[in-house]
């Protein structure tokens, strides 16, 4: 989420979550949800929400710059917002120059990262990079076109951490 523009998922009704913007792309556990482009998200079969959800919305009329909402996690124990102090994820430098090294660091320990996937998505939800993340620090060659991206770390136990970064 950017510091200058915040998107807050503020309404939860039953098995639906809502936001109010011009365009939307919902994500579950760091993956874009196919067809989930409305101002709300609910499972087609109306089953309870399960996993960590967020939405990306455009902040300009052209739809070229998108920002990420807060992350809401649902499980059998109810709803909870992922707090930054629970699992930290840092991406530096941010912004990064194309072709330069991006340092991705998480507060998760090696044993928590067993089987974890590190993924990078562009603002349209296209997966640009995927790698197993076995260490708390990962160095990535940011050889992506200029633009906004989302890095996601997802563990086998369902811990998800997401951070936005920019390539110049």
Any overview of this molecule?
The chain has 2 domains: 11-81, no CATH class; 89-167, Immunoglobulin-like, CATH 2.60.40. The radius of gyration is 16 Å and the shape is flat. The strands form 4 sheets. Strands 3, 4, 6, 7, 8 and 9 form a 6-stranded antiparallel β-sheet that branches. Mean pLDDT is 78; it is low at 1-6 and 77-85. The two termini are 18 Å apart. By secondary structure, the protein is mostly beta strands. The protein is 0% helix and 45% strand. The protein has no helices and 16 strands.
Topology diagram in text:
Layout: E1 11-13, E2 16-18, E3 25-28, E4 31-32, E5 40-41, E6 51-58, E7 66-68, E8 72-75, E9 78-81, E10 89-92, E11 101-106, E12 117-122, E13 127-132, E14 137-141, E15 147-154, E16 160-167
Antiparallel strand pairs: 1-2, 2-5, 3-4, 3-6, 6-7, 6-8, 8-9, 10-11, 11-14, 12-13, 12-15, 15-16
């Amino acid at each position: 989420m950017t510091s200058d523009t915040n998107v807050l998922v503020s309404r939860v009704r039953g098995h639906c979550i809502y936001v109010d913007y011009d365009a939307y792309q919902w994500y579950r556990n760091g993956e874009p949800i196919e067809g989930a482009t409305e101002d709300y998200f609910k499972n087609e079969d109306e089953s309870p929400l399960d996993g960590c959800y967020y939405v990306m919305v455009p902040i300009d009329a052209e739809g070229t710059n998108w920002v990420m909402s807060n992350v809401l996690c649902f499980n059998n124990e109810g709803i909870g917002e992922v707090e930054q102090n629970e699992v930290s994820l840092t991406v530096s430098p941010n912004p990064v120059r194309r072709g330069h090294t991006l340092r991705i660091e998480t507060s998760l320990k090696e044993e928590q990262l067993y089987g974890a996937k590190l993924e990078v998505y562009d603002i349209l939800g296209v997966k640009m990079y995927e790698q197993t993340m076995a260490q708390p620090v990962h160095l990535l060659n940011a050889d992506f076109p200029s633009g906004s991206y989302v890095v996601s770390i997802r563990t086998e136990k369902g811990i998800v951490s997401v951070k936005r970064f920019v390539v110049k």
